[in-house]
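Risk register update: the risk of archive-format incompatibility is retired. Evidence:
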Amino acid sequence: MRLVRGTWKLLVAVKDGLVLLAMLLFFGALFAALVAKPNPSIKPGALLVALDGTVVEQPSAVDPFAALSGTRVAREHRLRDVVHALDKARDDKRVKLVVLDLDRFVGGYPAVVAEVGAAVGRVRASGKPVLAYATAYTDSGYLVAANASEIWVNPMGGAMFSGPGGSQLYYKGLIDKLGINAHVYRVGEFKSAVEPFTRTDQSEAARAANQALYGSLFSQWREAVAKARPKAKIDDFVTQPDKLVLAAGGDIAKANLASGLVDQVGDRIAFGNRIAAIDGVGPADSKAAGSFKAISLKNWIAANPQPKSGAAIGVLTIAGEIVDGKSGSGTAGGDTISKLMLQGLAKKDLKALVVRVDSPGGSALASEQMRLAILQAKEKGLPVVVSMGGLAASGGYWVSTPGEVIFAEPNTITGSIGIFGLIPTFERTLAKIGVTTDGVQTTPLTGQPNIYAGTNAAFDTLVQATIENGYSRFIGLVAQSRRMTPERVNQIGQGRVWDGGTARQLGLVDRFGTLSDAVAEAARRAKLDPDKVHAAYLEKEPGAFEQFVDAMTSSDNDRVGSEPGDLVSRLAGERRALLAQAVGDARRLVKGNAAMQARCLECAGLGPAVPAAEDVRLLDLMLARVGL
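Archived output:
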């Protein structure tokens, strides 16, 4: 009997081992298949550029557990990949036309969207057809579509434009009701990031600055649309959309057609049939109505990698919020970026350096850490050129100061030269429920900052002095970099945000241009032929597990995706996303950060409304509490 039991246990163990081995082999094969990067075979057809989500400088690292658990993760497209793909499509005979699917396009910062639109315009200028489709066009999506040769809209949708701006949440009344004491330390008349915690409305200084900034950005948007699509009566739709829609019997798509904003009103099947009718395309193998032979953007990018021949011009990307310590892609950790810079100098034969900045700032300490790492390139005799993307404000400008020349776009958001800190304390909140505090101090700073009993005068004085010293340092760096007096930098600093065009007039920016222009300038400063160099990106390559998660969660359909909501739903969704984003910003600030923050918090409202998942959950919880 004992022998039988022993034999049975052995057989069970062998069975379990074989099952485990089979599972390991299966998942290993699945992993290898998903992360393998064979050169895809490109067959003639229409290049389908489905911009689901946003276009960014550097996509954020995806939370693997959120992605694999089915949580909806906003998709991010890398700007340089999209632009390079469109440029390569111009002269490639396999691409018969370019199809823009903008149904789920959330947008990007103004300069980013404008660069994508310009790339679309170059395809159209080459004589190749570009067809755009969406159920609902808003500002960002329409600027891209305006550069197409043919714009389609769903009969149940339309195009409507709101422009930058809108309402902002102010928490002073709520803070007072809860008894929270918000201790604000700041320098700069226009550093309005902390105003929601100290005021119930916008200060006159902040209002004047925002009106000037928003007015300039919207003026540039209107000019770009008018240039790309002269026949569109865009001014009428901006100033009196209600009258035009009423005149069309409430049919927005019909009003768009009458005003020259779109060329065709039709559903997806009609749009697909139009594409399939173009020479060299034809319907997809499935022969389904509305189908066409498509080249997916993912495969096209893989088949057309960035050039790597010639001398190497290093490109260090500082994208997203600047934080202390380490970070994943899409966030600029002081340790991570500095390490990438130093390793690039040590291991790569770089001839020059371009610092690509797309950041609202953040930690002043991390900003300085990255600036010092960039200066190591100068110590080695490398020319350093700065290229500003959609956003290079506050700490984003701090890290730009080593540049010998600074490139930006007219609608880049920059400046915000100022510093602040915020610490909430809860002595009045606790008093409301009968809780008090007491203790013993051995120095004026014992227990400070005391979130239960409040800060004392010594601590407040110390922190404010630190903030002012940090601002003076910031002013000094800008003055040295821009060859200005500290007094002049203080005049144009004070935390004020500028558009790229005004920043150039003020001397904060040298030239207008893209990342490619900055790389070419760096090559010239290194006495190299710009046509014989390539950009060597100093970025951390995604690990095997990250590639696996990305392959599992990304999808590429050859057909245009399913229909989203109508125009009203789209506009309401954008407002809700901005609200969730604002609530998240408030949550992060109220957590308290006595460290110096060189951050442009208000800049977030000028970019795509894509709040973090935890911010959406917090907003849902708040709305549920009030019965909405």
